[in-house]
Description:
9 helices, 7 strands, single chain
Amino acid sequence: MASSNSDDKFLSKAYAVESIDETRDFYKDWADTYDLEMAENQYATPTRCAAALATLAPNMDAPVLDIGCGTGISGAALRRAGFLTVDGSDLSDAMLQAARQKNIYRDLWQVDLDNPFPFAIGTYAHISAMGVIASGHAPPEMIDQVLGALPAGGLFVFSLNDHTLSDPAFEARVAENLDTGAAELLFKEHGDHLPEFSMKSNVYVMKKR
């Protein structure tokens, strides 16, 4: 069940956010208390994603882009897993300000939705999206966009929580990329996401072909 004092917090409201503008405003308001609230609810997905990527990545020195990095919880998980060079991007400037204070990332920038990947293909060996691709936050098409930004052989680790998995369009997008040969699925596991919030998630690692 949710933590006992969650009624006046943000997590219980996060899945009602529907537009990009609402998302930006919502996370601006949440930035100061985000880490505490996620810790209270035992946010497990970043650790699971980072561990899966570390198991499959051939070189821990290769740069990783952490999209939707938020306050840096996901970047910290990547660093704990052994990745040495991590950059981050996020829609919310307030979240990025919190992330900068942790000195986790080599570079951070605010996302321009007209150009979400402002770098040459192959700049990053791997890309992560932990808790990012979700109903109301980022559409299923982001899976295609991320794969397009990776070099051949690059790895994409991401999660889909149970709320998002209730919309079949997200897993359908995963299946389409596998069926067309655009990517290979190396890892898929259903496990803890927010245990105190009674929610699980799938973690995936896809390899671009």
